[in-house]
Structure formats: structure tokens, C-alpha cells
Amino acid sequence: MLVLSMRRGETTTITAPDGSRISAVILNNDLSSQEIRLGFDAPKEYLILRDELFRRLLDTLHYTPIFRLSCGVAPTQLIAAESERLACEHYQSLYPKSFDIQVQGVDSRYRHPDYMALETCWLRKGKLPVAVAESPVG
Fold it and tell me: How many C-beta atoms lie closer than 10 Å to residue 90's C-beta?
């Protein structure tokens, strides 16, 4: 862990391997207060959440059923939804010409190769249902 001492108005820049940058700036450093204010400037594709919100969202996803939906004319999707019916409705909204939809519950969510993508989608959207295309096996 890198620990920095900074003064009001000073900025720290974090550069990702792809070259994108996040800047954090100290907005106040009132020693009489129990809190500091940080400002973040990051590309839109970066998700910045307070830790308590991050944990609450992950807990919600943890208790939400995940379904694998497929049919002959549309890609297979992993969908987190409150029920199988809502997962099917969401799939049909994504693929209106889908019919004969096959639905399977996903039991081993943490071992599924696309779970992290579903988790990221959930963290960005913050409401159900969320869906990601299942990666081809092989």
C-alpha cells in the first residue's frame, strides 16, 4: 500500500496499464474535522464507488438468482434477475425474435468464467436485471 501525505489542492495521478489515468485531489485537509474530501477525475469506463456501496451491491448480487438463457437464433446470455420469468422477459427484450428459450439456473456462479463480467455490469448499472453474453467455451 502506498501512503501519501498531501495538502489541499494537491493531486495524485494513477496511470493504468492501458495508459488511462485517474486523478485524485485533496479538496480539504481541516485537521479539526474527522473527515477529508477527495475528488476523483477518471475516464468514464472506470467505476469509482465508496467501499460500503460496493459491498452492498455485491451482497445484493450474491443473493440474486443467475440464469443461463439461450435459444437457436440468439446468443447465450447470463442474466441476474429476481426470477426466471423476469430473466426470460429481459432476454426477449434483448432479442425480440427469440423463441423456444432454454433456461438453466447457474449454481456455481463464482466458478463461471463470465461471473466477473456480470458482476462488473451489475456494479455499473446498479439495478436488475443485468445480462452479459456468455463466452464461447474452448
Answer: 20
pTM: 0.72
User: Is the Cβ–Cβ distance between 125 and 64 less than 8 Å?
Assistant: no
Q: Which domain holds residue 15?
A: 1-46
Task: Tell me, yes or no, whether 54 lies in a domain.
Answer: no
Are both 10 and 69 inside the same structural domain? no
Per DSSP, the chain holds a count of helices (H) and strands (E) of 3, 7
Dihedrals phi, psi of 98, to nearest 5 degrees: -75, 145
Same domain for 75 and 37?
no
Number of structural domains in the chain: 2
User: Which tens digits make up the pLDDT trace of 10-69?
Assistant: 888 888 777 778 888 888 766 677 677 788 888 887 888 888 888 888 888 889 999 999
Can you tell me the distance from the alpha carbon of 26 to that of 36, in angstroms, rounded to the nearest whole number? 8
User: 67 and 121 share a domain?
Assistant: yes
Confirm if 106 and 68 have CB atoms less than 8 A apart: yes
